Amino acid sequence: MGGWRKTATAAAVLAAAMLVAAPLAAASSRAAAQSVAGSADQAHACGVPAAHDAACGAIQLLFPTANWHPGPNVHAAKGKGGGGSGGTTAGLPSSGYYPGDLQSAYGLASAAAAMGPGKSAPTVAIVDAYNDPYAATDLAAYRASLSGATDSNTGITDAAIPPLCSTTTTTGCVQFTKVNQSGRTSYPQANTGWSEEISVDLDMISAICPDCNIVLVEASSASFPNLAAAVSYAKSLSPAAITNSYGGSEFSSESTYNSIYTAGTSTAVTVASGDSGYGVEFPAASPGVTAVGGTALTYSGSGWNPQAVWSTAGSGCSAYEAMPSWQKDTSVYYKKGDCNGRQVADVAAVADPSTGVAVYDTYHEPGWMVFGGTSVSAQIIGGVYGLAAGSGSFRPSSSALYPDPGTTSATGPTPGLAPVTSGSNGSCGDYLCNAADRLSSGYNGPTGLGTPYGVGAFVTSVSTSPGGFGLSASPTSATVTQGSATSYTVTVTPSGGFNGSVALSVSGVPSGATPSFSPTSASSSSSWSSTLTVTTTSSTTTGSYTLTITGTSSGVPSQTTDVTLNVQAPQTTGSMTVTVAAGTSTQKGPYYHVPLTVSAKTSTTAAIAGAAVSLDVFAGSMCSGTPVATGTGTTGTNGTVTFTYKTRTAGTWCAKATVTATGYNPASAQATFST
């Protein structure tokens, strides 16, 4: 891994690719962490499972200050907060979605607000392996810290989250109980990786259904017999939902567990679809569960962008489980000849670690971290089932998500679910891995029937209200030279069954500029886009303008989103001189440190401030091949920026800097140095 970070004495720091600890933030202390294939900034919480055991689905986003991407308009990242061992208070996380973000994205705020805490509130049972000794204190810290908190990245404020019940707090609180797989309080062996999973699960149920009571059932190990025993005990409690954030490869005798994993008349069972891309895991393949896939979730600055398939979510056609009757509607829920078995998934929610959620864990961990994986999405849907149970008209079976086209006109998307229309998790060539190949119901493998908007799809009486729509634009900021044109893509995202016409308009356009939409309006139950083109003239005044795009439709609230238009005068291009200077190599412990100073000057040797600098370091005396480390920075008022290259290895290296600045031709330079 390689990268850069700020320090008190240097603008940026490079780290050699060979280092185990990456430079942006402290990684988990978990020695058994398993890197996610193809992603050096992510790690599976539980590492590689033992043979025939299940793996937990939590994936930690390493160094979230640089790698978390909630959307284009987020504020500058702050320093990492939290930390300690078993603490009950924590600062606010600087990365990762808050409860209010998730409730906003999935239209759940009103359902959550309608409930109240207490013994009569619905219970969600979470099944995990091993013991988290700090489960209660970490959960209390998460709830206390984020109750009423505002996420500075989105501006969304969380609702109040009631505290956990204690000897001093007995009313207006949430019951939290931890037991082993037999319902007793002699807990299994502690495990750092599974403790992270447990923190993810507890925090996500708290985020989605803050008034739900929670039972954590800890299996003795991650073996399927022990996990199934824990699920059996959880079912005996008749909770609203049992959530399972784990899975493993399918096996020929898996169906012997199906009765255990089948939803009951008042209990839903959610299971993570897996985090290895196209392919089916068990127990997600069990026909009686709600198999939950994954999406990427980003914020536009004024609303939520349409979700896309998370490229690593599990999906596909089971090798051992027969297709349930409620999926057997050709071209509606499956394509004849493509699959004869149980299809995964049924529904989906955010799982991409790069757009992940804030989680608090102090069992050998730093406190606030960011997680993704279908662990997150399985818990979100479990929380939605909890909210649905609180509404009094609960439908716990996954079959209820699939309206019967033979008895209804439900050949389109399920009301209350928004189909995901872009992205894929593999190269299967059809709807089982590609959202673009979705069927007439909106079904595709990685995200099933779609993501929730409200609890309508999970309750008996599905709302037939006109719903509404979201509005977003990309890019959120554009620069145009006087006399030229620039464009934005405006996306309309219907929700809640909305199928009306939306007309678009824009205000705030500067004098002398002409806006136009193509198309100006459309009517659709799925997302559609329009191109807003703004054409300026030589008389258009230079400066920065906020354009407000408005979407209107009869019977539903209007929506707005803002974009920035920067109008600049024609630029003259000057020449720029760039140099790279390597300082003296020093040794600190096992590491060599070499300062690398990049300078940008005009042809008259005046300093160029604010220039963007990209620096690559290569092994050997030639700046060619694949860099072992990279970094970026910005020149200061003296026209320079200093990086520090850090490595364990003595040798010869080549540093190459590429510099860009407004009004100048890009320039580069390189230097060879030794450690």
What are the salient characteristics of this protein?
single chain, 675 residues, mainly beta, Immunoglobulin-like, eight-stranded mixed β-sheet, 33% strand, globular
Overall morphology:
globular
Low-confidence runs: 1-13, 15-33, 75-87, 462-466
Distance between the termini: 19 Å
CATH topology of the largest domain: Rossmann fold
Q: What is the gyration radius calculated from CA atoms?
A: 27 Å
Structure summary, number of beta strands: 39
CATH homologous superfamily designation of the largest domain: Peptidase S8/S53 domain
Q: What percentage of the residues does DSSP assign to strands (E)?
A: 25-35%
Largest sheet properties: 8 strands, mixed
Mean pLDDT: 87
**Number of alpha- plus pi-helical segments:** 8
Instruction: Please give the domain count.
Output: 3
How does this structure look, described?
The protein is mainly β and 675 residues long. It has 3 domains: 3-14 and 574-674, Immunoglobulin-like (Sandwich); 32-73 and 80-458, Peptidase S8/S53 domain (Rossmann fold, 3-Layer(aba) Sandwich); 468-568, Immunoglobulin-like, CATH 2.60.40. The protein contains 8 helices and 39 strands. The strands form 9 sheets. Strands 7, 8, 9, 10, 12, 14, 15 and 18 form an 8-stranded mixed sheet that branches. Strand 38 (652-660) and strand 39 form a beta hairpin. Helix 2 (99-105) crosses helix 5 and helix 4 (135-146) runs parallel beside helix 5 (192-208). The longest helix has 17 residues, at 192-208. The protein is globular. The relative contact order is 0.12. Residues 1-13, 15-33, 75-87 and 462-466 have low confidence and may be disordered.
